[in-house]
Amino acid sequence: MLCASVKTPMPAPVPAPWTFLTNHTHVLLCLHRFPGDTLREVAARVGITERAVQRIVRDLEAAGVVARERQGRRNTYRIQHAAALRHPLEAHHTVGELLASLG
């Protein structure tokens, strides 16, 4: 038992090991906010590997959430704002609504 007169310093807060949004959402937000970024830059912003971003973008393309467009030597990604969210709890909302709510 510690004596009440002895003060121990409070430990620094440790960041939570999880977030409310998935990496898919983080990548989608980056494509929305920074449309000129390369996938390498998106990976750096999200804090995951470039390979993981490539896989996520493929998932988003397959789901009809983003469309890849070639511009010269670079790809750009157009977000399909009317696409419905995938989970039954959110299916009545669109990707555009999600992006608007997150700023």
Automatic annotation (TrEMBL):
Specify the HTH marR-type domain's residue ranges.
23-72
InterPro entries per the record? ArsR-like_HTH, HTH_MarR-typ, WH-like_DNA-bd_sf, WH_DNA-bd_sf
Pfam families recorded for this chain?
Answer: MarR_2
Q: Name one GO molecular function term.
A: DNA-binding transcription factor activity
- Protein's name according to its UniProt entry: ArsR family transcriptional regulator
Coiled-coil annotated spans? none
Give the source's domain of life in one word: Bacteria
Look up and give the organism this protein is from.
Deinococcus arcticus
Query: Record's SUPFAM superfamilies?
Result: Winged helix' DNA-binding domain
